[in-house]
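We now fix the convention by which a protein and its fold are recorded. The integers have meaning only within a learned vocabulary of local backbone shapes. A complete example follows; check for yourself that the lines match position by position.
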Amino acid sequence: MPLNLISITEGCYILVGSPRQPAPGLIVNADQKTAILIDSGPNDNVAKDIDKTVSGAGYQIIAIINTHHHADHCGGNHFFQCKYPNIKIYATEYEKTFIEHPFLEPMYLSSGAHTFSFVGNSPFLNAKPSQVTNVIPNEDGYILSEQGFQLTVRTLPGHTRGMIGIGTKNRVFYCADALFSRMVMSNHGLLFHTCIDEALKTLDKILNLTESYFSISMYHGGLATDVHELVSINKEKILEVSGFLLQTINNRANISIDDIVGVAVCRFENSEVEITPSQFLLNRTVIMAFLADMERAKIINIKIYEGKLVAQRN
């Protein structure tokens, strides 16, 4: 599908297709006619569209920065690395492991076991492997220098442990999946985060970053025109789920983890749309993240009762 190169400010763009498509970032050097891509899309086909759009505008992509390892962010790496063998791919050490070994993503959704076929064969969960050529230190404020580009790396843990965002000298910040748009939230009652406490802290960081950056771009949703309100809604969504889970545990003694997941999915997912088994496993991961944070904070206790893993309030 053709992509539009939308200018945010001088040297900073997003690549936009349909409203449901992701919006990778593009930072260009107009003098050198070079560009750095912020995330590469989910697959070869989208990567080809990105390449066609960027080269059609007269720029050569010299590097990709992967904000994190999810397939929809790094699935295009393979195409670019095959077509441009000298291209550099940047990621943090934690995310590098999953990008180079993409079978790990479906595996952790399957409790570390051999995956169901629908998980192992899902293009949404299985990127083609690619090699990360340059590791970004896990250091907030790290300056990444690459052939005339100077970019500021901000750590944004929560969605994944090693996720980062990228700031430019022209005060644009690409926030990856730290902040979700209204469209995403209307379609997903359970926002995907693997560490809830860190996700909430990262949302506060996004607010603070608005003092340094006048534009915040979301990978799913493009430019955020109302960052303060979006951050507030994102936090409310997270806290609503947390409160519901605690109430559920309070109301049912020794409720099993499986039952908690089932009740939460029924409560927060759109009842008019039947979710797939893969979506259920993603939702289960989210609920496990909530329960893990509660257990670590000694709010709940996890134990075995009648052969089941159950939760109870402390």
